[in-house]
């Protein structure tokens, strides 16, 4: 979806402000949110793409004004309710009123290490890769109303395939409960001028990781 | 918490209590439903606070600086190479190391959310997740570097890697001059988090003398 989360190339957000000696968390609740996210992921409740899509669906003014972990919490509430893990009434009350849904497995202290390891996104290829390193490709000009990982600034642009990462679960499909729909994944590199026009810094190149359905030969 | 303006660096005042209450309600419900175990949440938080951090990545970089075979393995398949080092946070399948040279400077960003190589660098800093960084890194990387007080000469090409899938990138910075014969442990002290994101350089021997 063409949301405010797709920030690449936007102006007006100001300077980057590094924080010296930044603590791991700025408030204890941030750690709780992160740990709940990991636990719910381990429990097989929803996929990371569904978490991202729930964030993208936040109203723009909320997305922009909430902090990172606040967005996570809001997206978690969305998925908890939409997927039937708890009711909005229960979240509002702060207590469960009904029994929970079955989960695949529960993250307990003895398996925390496993719970913090990223799963693999590799999937069985459904066919040969269409592109190889060195191929010129054009990204499609697509504007799906749902989740996609093709950023706006890199749509309809000509680049070169640099790396082939194997076949991966396709976020555009996973995020809307349409299954893994495995797709080949490539690093595609663009000249700055192709993305930002003749005034672009000629010494800059930018790459994205693009799934095969985003690309056509150029 | 959704209805309030929010400073991305801090929580304060009534907003803190609202967010706290809402997160506490969520945890209570998820716990009562049997989905999460508060003791496991404590253990996860402790791991992120004490065990996973840029020191893991620094070890990787220092080893690549000292061991040419490891460096080659790292650039060929970073997931596999890093796994041999036995990290606290085990590395998944999709890590890629990109090498800075005298003619190329790499920078990592995620414009769509905040994808970051947690396994080797720990929790992402607030600036990495912020709108200014996410919006400008792909369009004006030299301007972003200037915000960090970093200048990369114009005869060096800048390559920005936008982490739009599950691939995660770590920059292999250039080994500082004057470190010949240094041990891996000593070299690791020069490797900063930002040098592995590409918004900084490693420290010089003088800086740690």
The structural class of chain A is alpha+beta
**Second rung of CATH, namely the architecture of the largest domain in chain A:** Orthogonal Bundle
Query: Which sheet architecture does the biggest sheet of chain A show?
Result: 5 strands, antiparallel
Structural class given helices, strands, pairing of chain B? Answer: mainly alpha
Distance between the termini of chain A: 25 Å
Helix content of chain A: 25-40%
* Ends distance of chain B: 47 Å
β-sheet strand percentage of chain A: 15-25%
The helix tally of chain A amounts to 8
Descriptive report:
The complex is a heterodimer of chains A (about 220) and B (about 210). Chain A folds into 2 domains: about 30-115, Cyclin A, domain 1, CATH 1.10.472.20; about 135-215, Roll (SH3 type barrels). Chain A is about 30% helix and about 15% strand. Chain A is α+β, with helices and mostly antiparallel strands and about 220 residues long. The longest helix of chain A is centred in the first third of the chain and has 15 residues, at about 30-40. Chain A is globular and about 60 Å long. A 5-stranded antiparallel sheet of chain A has the order 4-3-2-1-5. Chain A contains 8 helices and 5 strands; from the N terminus they run H-H-H-H-H-H-E-E-H-E-H-E-E. Chain B has 2 domains: about 15-50, no CATH class; about 55-210, Nitrile Hydratase, Chain A. Chain B contains 12 helices and 4 strands. The model of chain B is unreliable at about 1-10 (pLDDT under 50).
